[in-house]
Structures are given as C-alpha cells and as structure tokens.
Amino acid sequence: MQQITVNEASQHLSDLIEAALGGDEIIIMKDNQPVVKLIPVLPVKIRPKFGSAKGMIKMSDDFDDPLEELKEYME
After folding, report:
1. Which of 3, 52, 53, 74 is the most buried (most CB within 10 A)?
2. R_g (Cα) of the chain, nearest Å
3. What DSSP line would sit under 9-56, residue for residue?
4. d(CA 20, CA 34)
C-alpha cells in the first residue's frame, strides 16, 4: 500500500494508474488523512454456472411431435 499527498498524486497520476493496474493499492492523503483509494476498475466476467437453471425450464411431452399445420406436408 502506497500513501501519497494530493500534490504528489497530481504530478505522477499516470505512474500511479499503472501501479494500481499492476495490483498496488494507492492511498491519496489530504491534511494527513486518507481521502481517496486508487484501485483499478476491471470488467467483471460472469461465467455461466452449468445447471443453475435446472427446474426452471419445462418442455411439454409433445415438444418434438409434428405440428398440425405441417401434417399434410409430412404425408
């Protein structure tokens, strides 16, 4: 964890951003009090959990039966 003043942060912002992207936690201090934490905003990747919809989807028993409208074409 790195602590710096507001003035230092404004002078070295691009370096601080790179450090945060690299995993460092940057705390910006004002009047010897922590006021801002600089951390990266990374896109959240949501992976599907297989089986999570179990029981939520139901198919009718005649799902794969030929449609009435197409019966004449099937003969």
Report:
1. 3
2. 29
3. HHHSHHHHHHHHHTT--EEEEETTEEEEEE----PPPPPP-TTTTTTT
4. 16
Q: Is residue 65 part of a domain?
A: no
Tokens of 23: 């995993």
The secondary structure element, H or E, covering residue 13 is helix 13-21
Write out the two tokens for 16: 């601080």
Tokens of 14: 């691009």
Residue 37 has a pLDDT of: 94
**Is 68 a member of any domain?**
no
Number of domains in the chain: 1
Find out whether 26 and 14 touch, Cβ atoms under 8 Å: no
The CATH number assigned to the domain holding 30 equals 3.40.1620.10
Kindly report, residue by residue over 12-34, the tens digit of the pLDDT.
999 999 998 888 899 999 999 99
Identify the domain containing residue 12 by its residue range. Answer: 1-41
